[in-house]
């Protein structure tokens, strides 16, 4: 998730409780951990990865996939859709048999993509920078 948040305005006019700036270091009830109540409690934008990429004009480009037993790793980089000078660092992500892929209007699993020949059954394969939108969770 991508979040843009900011500190609340003047406490006398804020409808949202104004928390101390160091509040994110405090542990509320000793079993949830610190950082669950940040002072930045006015969210301006909250969006998932595909929405963020569409708004920013970016796309994930798949470089390589390595599959073993319907699970594996994929190497991809988030880059500007139209090329350009944006920073693109490679990310390595894991997936398993529960991963789902939208292909047009169909929701496919890893086994479906292997059966169609889009992914190898048990090896590394180069994906040559294929552009996709990823929903990272």
Summarize the structure.
This protein has 137 residues and is mostly beta strands.
Give structural notes.
- By secondary structure, the chain is mainly beta.
- It folds into 2 domains: 1-46, no CATH class; 49-132, no CATH class.
- Helix content is 11%, strand content 40%.
- The protein contains 2 helices and 8 strands.
- It has helices at residues 49-56, 110-116, and strands at residues 2-6, 42-47, 58-68, 71-80, 90-95, 100-103, 106-109, 124-132.
- It has a 4-stranded antiparallel beta sheet with strand order 5-4-3-8.
- Strand 3 and strand 4 (71-80) form a beta hairpin.
- The longest helix is centred in the middle third of the chain and has 8 residues, at 49-56.
- The protein is elongated and about 60 Å long.
- The termini are close together.
- The model has no long low-confidence stretch (mean pLDDT 82).
Which helices and strands occur, and which strands form pairs?
Layout: E1 2-6, E2 42-47, H1 49-56, E3 58-68, E4 71-80, E5 90-95, E6 100-103, E7 106-109, H2 110-116, E8 124-132
Antiparallel strand pairs: 1-2, 3-4, 3-8, 4-5, 6-7
């Amino acid at each position: 998730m991508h979040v843009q948040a900011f500190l609340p305005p003047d406490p006398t006019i804020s409808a949202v409780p104004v928390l101390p700036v160091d509040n994110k270091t405090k542990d509320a009830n000793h079993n949830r951990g610190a950082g669950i109540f940040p002072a930045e409690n006015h969210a301006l934008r909250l969006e998932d990865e595909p929405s963020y990429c569409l708004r920013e004009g970016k796309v994930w480009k798949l470089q390589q996939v390595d599959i073993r037993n319907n699970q594996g790793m994929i190497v991809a980089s988030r880059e500007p859709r139209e090329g350009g000078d944006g920073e693109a660092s490679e990310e390595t992500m894991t997936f398993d048999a529960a991963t789902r892929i939208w292909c047009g209007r169909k929701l496919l699993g890893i086994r479906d993509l292997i059966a169609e020949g889009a992914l190898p059954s048990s090896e590394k394969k180069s994906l040559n920078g294929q552009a996709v939108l990823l929903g990272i969770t």
